[in-house]
Amino acid sequence: MILMLKIIRISIVTIIISGSILGQSLNLPSRPENAPTGNKLVRKIEGLSLENRDSIIASEILSGNVPAFVRQIVPINFKQKIDEKKYSVTYFVTADYLAVGSSSDYLYTPMAPAT
After folding, report:
1. pLDDT score at 88
2. How many CB atoms within 10 Å of residue 109?
3. C-beta separation of 55 from 40 below 8 A
4. Three-point CA angle 25, 95, 100, nearest 5°
5. What is the rounded (10 degree) CA torsion for 22, 64, 43, 106?
6. 11 or 98: which carries more pLDDT confidence?
7. Whose CA is closest to 111, among 88, 94, 90, 91?
8. Does residue 9 contact residue 93 with C-beta atoms inside 8 Å?
9. With 0-12 CB in 10 A as exposed, 13-18 as middle and 19+ as buried, what is 37?
10. Please, which residues bridge with residue 108 across strands?
């Protein structure tokens, strides 16, 4: 189950990687000055359904409301031999768990795979 969640998280992150993987950073706008901090976001999503909560979190991420340390990505190389054929895949993932908010006040947050 943990491996599946990591693969899902990797998949979500690879969707928003910039067109040029050489820059190794997420292709997100700058964090808006009026974006909610982690504590404010907790109060905003508290008590909401999973669907509504994830919708708000996804919107915040796509608007650039993520800490600076989440924007940097690192390569993960995976090699596997299947039926005598060699496969090599490189994933680019964030160096830390998904977070929303400012660099000094952020919320680590999971999201449903369907989001």
Report:
1. 92
2. 19
3. no
4. 80
5. 40
6. 98
7. 94
8. yes
9. middle
10. 99
Task: Give the pLDDT of residue 25.
Answer: 82
pTM tops 0.70, yes or no: no
- Which tokens in the block code for residue 61? 């991420």
Token pair, residue 30, equals 């700058």
Single out the residue of 102, 103, 80 nearest to residue 91, CA to CA. Answer: 80
Task: Give the mean pLDDT of the chain.
Answer: 82
Compute the distance between CA of residue 90 and CA of residue 82 in angstroms, rounded to an integer: 17
The model's confidence at residue 61, banded by pLDDT at 50, 70 and 90, is very high
Helix (H, G, I), strand (E, B) or coil at 74: strand
Residue 19 pLDDT: 44
Tokens of 97: 């768990």
**C-alpha torsion 47→48→53→59, nearest 10:** -110
Assigned token pair, 69 = 């340390």
